[in-house]
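Hello again, I could really use a second opinion on something today. I owe you a coffee for this, so here goes:
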Amino acid sequence: MRLIHTSDWHLGQMLHDRPREEEHRRFLAWLLDRLVAERADALVVAGDVFDNANPYASAQRMYYRFLADCRSRLPNLDIVVVGGNHDSPSRLDAPADLLGAFGVTVVGGLPRRADRTTDFDRLVRPLTDASGKTAAWVVAMPFLRPADLPNETELETEAVEPIEDRVTAGIRKLYDAAFAQARRRRAPGQAIIATGHCFMVGGEVSKLSEREIQRGNQDAFPADIFPDDAAYVALGHLHKAQRVGGRDTVRYCGSPIPLAMSEKDYRHQVVLVELDGETCADIRELPVPRTRRLFVVPETPEPLDAVLAKLDELEFDEEEDVPPLVEARVLLENPQPNVARTVRDALDGKNVEVVRVQVTYSGTGRGLADDLPSTNLGDLSPEDVFLRRFQKLYAGDGADELLDAYRELLDLARNGANA
């Protein structure tokens, strides 16, 4: 059987106040065409369907329209959608029973029975091939929040064990139990695949667009939480396509569009996986066509005249119906008025939009306060703000332990907001 792995759509996302709806619309149209052309039997969406827990109505319409189009053009396609850290588990799960009647499996959050035990029957679902026979089983694991993990008693560990060990042990225990359920249900010749929306050891992050998880990415999970008999593991969360742990069958497919200017050179793609019996026979990367071009000019800040000269060298096609976006990076010795307007005026009349003018100051003969780097609050993570405040209030070291506790609070706050 053949399946396509995608993740991190972030429907409803804005890039410096610029909507991405047209880019997302064209990606979903392309994805549907690829599903048809590749004769896919299944589609796996590994989390972050939406950009936030309360997505715009237009983003929700786009999601449901895509599912309806899939059912219309590919009546036998199995669709599996799991929740990511940006998604609201309850919002994704609300229509799960209705969508399930149309062959769409949705697992927004870790499913629980009435007695609060994990419902592994909902986590482990069959996938069918073109003949309609069960060819594989998917462990449809969503993003796991601290409240989802087994406690110390269930893990049979000591309470004094470091929290990062408890987190990893809890994740491993849930996956072990889910894979055990899949092994009980599968017949010989049927593959087991899995999903995961998490930060893995060795993962390369995109700091400006990925929200840190697992205590600020401190608890990276090892690839060996996925057993060797997993034919393929479809990961979500990291926007750059990459393999994990040296295993070709454990990988992030990455986001389908650049979600920050720093991602302009990423290879955006989906992954086509072909299963042969219990094993993965072939993996092929399908590049996603770029709807909108992104420019950062220059890569490192330069004086204003040099930046204007480089902007003048850029070529823009008036036929492009989705204008490119430009971020300019200017180096100044002293503050100058109307720098942003000067940059925008230089591109006036061209088929392009300036989304940001970043100014960096450097020079001599200025006051001590003037030598401090110019900082946009939007460029700082909550951890950065915490550390700056700590250093302002207290002298010396000692922030590490408090920072760990702060990261736990961040996880709880974010997870509560997405419930």
Q: What stands out?
A: Residues 163-185 form the longest helix (23 residues).
